[in-house]
């Protein structure tokens, strides 16, 4: 077995590892974002519940902000304004859309949904949406197998699936 590293094989290995690293980084960022959204929603939910149960007013938000910044000084993002946004976030989205896993009110199909009918309506709405975006977007097709092979240094701008 030769100890010589072939440039082509090495570059291929390096490219694969770099892609894997970038993919892992993106997954980590996405996980953090999901956890932050869940935290903000939970904080908004807790504040809303206490305000409803105990009749607390908006001053509780000022106090929470002050106490959080004093007790956990290294953490940022819990100003009075941000906590009010968390409460608004909860109130705006603690509706039917969080209770039902799928909301298809914009379709004119009746429940229970048949998979084929649902797919056709989703594709129709996706095509309409892409046309409204204007030039630069393309609809390739339904259930279209897409293989993307990129040489090093090339990136895909956007891929909507």
Summarize the structure.
Helix content is 61%, strand content 0%. It is mainly alpha-helical and 161 residues long. The protein is flat.
Secondary-structure blueprint:
Elements: H1 7-54, H2 59-71, H3 80-93, H4 96-99, H5 115-133
Helix pairs in contact: 1-3
Describe the structure in your own words.
It contains five helices and no strands. The protein is 61% helix and 0% strand. Helix 1 crosses helix 3 (80-93). With 161 residues, it is mainly alpha-helical. The longest helix has 48 residues, at 7-54.
Q: What are the main properties of this structure?
A:
single chain; 161 residues; mainly alpha; 61% helix; flat
Elements, N to C (H/E):
HHHHH
Main sheet? none
Low-confidence stretches: none
Q: What's the end-to-end separation, in Å?
A: 44 Å
The helix content is 55-70%
* Molecular shape: flat
What is the helix tally? 5
Rg estimate, integer Å: 24 Å
Q: Strand share of the residues? A: under 5%
Mean pLDDT: 79
Number-wise, the strands total 0
Q: SS-based structural class?
A: mainly alpha
């Amino acid at each position: 077995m030769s100890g010589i590293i072939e440039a082509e094989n090495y570059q291929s290995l390096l490219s694969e590892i770099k892609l894997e690293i970038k993919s892992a980084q993106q997954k980590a960022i996405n996980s953090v974002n999901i956890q932050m959204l869940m935290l903000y929603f939970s904080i908004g939910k807790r504040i809303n519940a206490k305000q409803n149960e105990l009749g607390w007013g908006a001053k509780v938000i000022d106090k929470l902000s002050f106490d959080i910044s004093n007790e956990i000084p290294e953490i940022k993002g819990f100003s009075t304004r941000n906590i009010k946004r968390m409460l608004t976030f909860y109130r705006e989205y603690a509706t039917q859309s969080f209770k039902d896993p799928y909301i298809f009110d914009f379709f004119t199909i009746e429940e229970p949904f048949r998979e084929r009918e649902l797919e056709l309506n989703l594709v129709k709405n996706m095509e309409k949406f892409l046309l409204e975006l204007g030039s630069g977007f393309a609809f390739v097709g339904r259930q279209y197998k897409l293989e993307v092979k990129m040489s090093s240094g090339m990136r895909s701008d956007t891929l909507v699936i």
